[in-house]
Amino acid sequence: MTDLPNLSPFSYQLLILLTAMFSKGVISHFISHEPLRFFQFYCQKLGDKVNKSPSSPQQQTISGLVAIIITLAPIAIILWLFAAFIEVDFLWQAFLLYLAIGSFGLSQVNKSIAQAIVAKQSYLAKQTLKRWLLRETEPLSSLGLSKAAIEMKLLRTLQQGYVVAIIFLVAGPLAAILFRLLLEMHYCWNTKLEKFNHFGLHSKLIVNLLQWLPVRIFSLLLLFTSIGKNFLLFWRLSKKHFFQLDNNIALLLLALSLEVKLGGVAMYTNRNGANTKLAKTSFNNLARQPQVTDIIHANNKITYLVSFSLTFLILIALAVEFITVNI
To answer: Among 132, 128, 130, 129, which residue's Cα sits nearest to residue 160?
Structure first.
């Protein structure tokens, strides 16, 4: 129920979104924190407990689905019931959205990585990037670090920010926080890791389904920034990825926009502790490898698209309020 009766429902939700983002940005500037750290620990322990090696692939897949249900169902019921006792709806929704939105320090992280690479402090760059990636960073060269930093910034901004915001505007704070929790499960039980090849299939599938539309909206905005340059070429190259259930279209369009190559082989740790190479899709193969400066260019490009999206939503809200007042 709207606490600010003079605002339309859309404007009210947008105001909550802006409040949560502003609060997250200010607090993250002074304090580095991760509100969902305990949930991440819980997912790791649950995966180790439930995902038994001797189990068949089918049993592991079913166990992964059951783990999602027994974790998220009680949380959803408790939060839904608790909301009825909250006096100030605005603060409750803003609090849930604050928890759901990811870190606002990714641009600064990438700047630190770029500075470390320039200073030839390879170990520092690898350690800084390691906590944000599933893949192993030790084998990465300076070019590999630049590529991984760009991909990390794009994918985490999309999944933990852009998708969360759109789900909140469409379905409310409960849906937003449940998606973020599901996303953390997907991170912990990623199918790129050998022991979660089957256990993490359902979390991966549900996340890909929920993020499909928001990622396509972002990708279209990214495509439109090439109008007057190579718009038609970029569309022809990317349209085959449009209906695929992944984030490849966003990665490809960013690679084309920056005129660099992204994707390629990545190394992950298997269940024996040894590293395993996993061939990933490459994007814009004929382009050059990304340099340190491309990390900053990617930061600016992604920040611009997020800012443009927020500005567009604010203009829509103002138009809705103007029309409502004059009807």
So the answer is: 132
